[in-house]
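Residues determine shape. We examine one folded chain.
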Amino acid sequence: MKAEKERLESLAREKGHADKLKAKISDMNASIASKETEYQEAKKLYEALARSNRKFEEGATKFREIYIRVENLEKDKQKYQEELAELRPNVEETDGTPHILRPSFGALIFLITLRHRRTIGRAYQKLQCSYCRTKECPTSPGG
């Protein structure tokens, strides 16, 4: 009987220990589930931030390219204005359109200058228009 009592006490202790382990396992499983949920939320946030950063970098690159193009066009414009200022004293201005003027050195300079101005103007308008289509800007209609 004494042996039976000791065996029952031993079994009761083992059952208590097993119950503690089951409770600990249950707590650990709940902790793992909450950590997985937290991980998934952090992963979604990271992916959204990564997409946002890529879009920002693309926009910054495009802006940098446009800025360099505009800067080059402004340099060209300045160069052509300086050339025009140098050549203008040597050119006799006449009334009329370029195709009516008789072919002469002055008319040729005028035509070249006019062509360069139009080219620069068109390029500048294209840059403005492409910018206005992608972003709101003060120069766009309704922008």
User: Anything to note?
Assistant: The longest helix spans residues 2-87. The two ends are 96 Å apart (CA to CA). The helical segments are 2-87, 105-134.
